[in-house]
Amino acid sequence: MKVRAGDVTYRTLRSRIMRRLFCLEAFEPRTMVSGSVVINEINYNTPVKTNPIEYLELTNPGDAVVDLGGASFSNGIGYTFPAGTLLQPGAFVVVAENPAAIQSTYGVAALGPWTGGLDNNGEDLVLKDALGNKLDEVNYGSGFPWPIVGTGPSIQLINPNFDNGLGGNWRSGVLTPGQVNGDFALNAAPAMRQLDVVPKQPASGQAVTITTKVTDPDGVASVSLSYQLVDPGNYIPVEDPAYNLPANWTSLAMHDDGLDGDALAADGVYTAVIPGSVQVNRRLVRYRLSSTDGLGATVTGPYADDPVPNFAYYVYDGIPFYSAALQPGGTGTAGQVQTFSPATLNSIPVIQLLTRKLDHDNAQNIPGKTLPAYGGNDYPWSGTLVYNGVVYDNVHYRARGGGWRYAMGKNMWKFDFASGHDFQAYYADGTPYPTTWTKLNLGADIQQGDIGMRGEQGLFETLAFQMFNLAGVAAPATIPLELRIVENSSATGATQYDTDFQGLYLTVEQPDGRFLDAHSLPDGNLYKVEGGNGTLKNQGPTQPGDNSDFAAFKAGLTSNATNQWIIDNVDLDEFYSFQAVAEMVHHWDIGGGKNYYYYHNPQTNKWQILPWDTDLTWYDNYEPFNGDITNFTSVILARSVFKTAYRNRVRELQDLLYNSHEMGKLADAYANLVNPPGTGPTIVQADAAMWDYNPIMALNSGKSGMGLYYLGGLPTQDFAGMVARLKSYVVSRQSYLVSTVITTVDEAAIPHKPVVTYTGQAGFAANQLTFSTSAFSPGTAGDLFSAMQWRVSDVTWNGTDPAYETSSTWDGGALTSFNAGVTIPISGVTPGHTYRVRVRMKD
Hints:
Blueprint: H1 10-24, E1 38-43, E2 55-59, E3 66-67, E4 72-75, E5 77-80, E6 86-87, E7 92-96, H2 99-106, E8 115-116, E9 124-128, E10 134-139, E11 154-157, E12 170-173, E13 191-198, E14 208-215, E15 220-230, E16 250-254, E17 269-274, E18 284-293, E19 298-301, E20 311-314, E21 322-325, E22 337-340, H3 342-345, E23 350-354, H4 357-363, E24 381-387, E25 390-400, E26 412-416, E27 439-443, H5 459-470, E28 478-486, E29 501-508, H6 513-518, E30 525-530, E31 533-538, H7 548-556, H8 563-569, H9 572-585, E32 594-600, E33 607-611, H10 632-636, H11 640-656, H12 660-674, H13 683-691, H14 695-699, H15 719-742, H16 744-749, E34 756-758, E35 769-773, E36 787-794, E37 823-826, E38 835-842
Parallel strand pairs: 23-28
Antiparallel strand pairs: 1-2, 1-11, 2-7, 3-6, 4-5, 4-9, 5-8, 9-10, 11-12, 13-14, 14-17, 15-16, 15-18, 18-19, 18-20, 21-22, 23-24, 24-25, 25-26, 26-27, 27-29, 28-29, 30-31, 30-32, 32-33, 34-35, 35-37, 36-38
């Protein structure tokens, strides 16, 4: 089962696990009473969501019968055992989300079903008896000190007499519901946990202290650490034979004697100090832990089931200065060298890729290199990512995109993270994104050379996606970041193009199951549409797994579809918002059956259309397709009942979002982040210096080219001019919306806008606000008044964290009569904030 929306972040989860382990130190080994209940197996990450086979297995390692009647899981899942449920000594009982599925798949009877579900990132499972006394508790996780299962096998306690609160007593293995676990052992190797590294990201010459808690009922005979040095310019992929060469690993004994960095003797915390001489700038240090107990049982961490077979930290002295000219050797200001400070380059989140230069060149198809055959591997190149102080090792990558994947010179990237090592993104202010990611998309913030809009540097795509989200259409989150690639022995080279610095890129959230979680959408089928065909990107547990729902929907949405079929199968409000924003930002790259997703909501059984690939927006000189999306517009908007509702939504979004005030806030918020005023050279200027006249732009085939940044800027040819151009486009596009989308005839037929007048006390005293509206006045259609609503919206704008008018909702009950006007009292406002009051009338 996928991660549920609202669950704790990865960092918080791991901290919670660590705190739990501290509490359990006194319970090793487990002390059995005459009858005991032990959570013995947890199957929480099933490979096929349409086969609901999540389960928990309990066993009784004691010598007396346990009565489970009335016992219940009070945390994690919800289930109460029926009266008379007895757990015999040595017996097992399985509790499942779907007992029938367990019976048909494994031939094992199970109790259930339960409510809720097991979290793939781990959670706290608590079983209490009928009186509320705790019978057992397991706070499991995914990743050291717990096993990693990926999808398929469960985690299993190697012996029910061992403490199941310690991750080291569990292994991943083939599912064994109702049976002795496959990795059963009479002796467990030492339990290692509470791994800590100080400092997390050392500087050159700084000694690093690594500690881990290690305990075993048979005594700990030895604990050791081995480390591998990966120097810049000499990256070692995990799959390279050099990775496992003994000569590339150095071993250190870890000790618990209170000496040489160990804080306290005989406390079970073992310490090793990697000396300062090892810490060299831009060096990756990988390490592994091994321990042996008094009976000779040995374990190495990370465990064998972990796709990343080592831990790691990165030595870094910080971002150096970057000196570059927009046009090296050019005349005037373009040829002047600017120096970009570390503070400037650190003004947005920074991600570093450690890899081999040849792999980088091949992955991006740098001119002069031969693109290797993929050999069936969609991510054939290896590297290590460092982000927010966290090392993500054994990451695989490729260039991203379709037909123009290698055409831009500055191309896009896509990274795939190892199972159990999800990526935690952060906004520029340090706020973690609500879900972790298994894929990382980097947009290159560059456009085709013949478009004439190069130099918008992420502004167009960011604002388009933000508009969709503000209009109520789930769209990918975007986060600007700086990419650095560590592939040479030095961070600087012979030219400004031979450095770690790679410029400004845009993180674009991957539409998948976690995307649905982050946007509070139920777990349903999600299809990426290319050429009119749908590729399943997330499988809903209750929906078809053979694309039949997608095919049926496409077949049904034709000119023969009845109005009722459309109402029953299409989320019309969401579609109206999608189409309105697509028209407003000129997202006409959605024709030809591409650049969007279909989402099948399992709760409403309706379909939604979600946006993708919005970089070719905000200008009219890109006209390959019209705005039709596989019959959505040609079928739905051809019918007057739907067209009227759609035009109403366009008007509403014009008033609330697509206007100079609100769009100016959106544009300025992004500009202030990447190009803050009055601070000297900025990250966008560094990006332009890196790429505008980069020799790659001249050599690469396709739509690249040199010297094309900011040519579309108005009134100035710089990034500020690109921002000004976008703002002016909003104004010019309004006339198109009125004349073509809404039509002037329909605009004249609607009721006249009422006038809102403040009628409260002077000074706008909080909770003493009243407003009056003028009387209803019909349009040319002459229809009578039927209803009115009002809204008050916080539109405070402080330059960094604006509030947008769309965040409010319409309020006020429908009025059945209307004569001279209505007085509206407003309360609950915050002093010092700016508000906008609106009313709308329906004829």
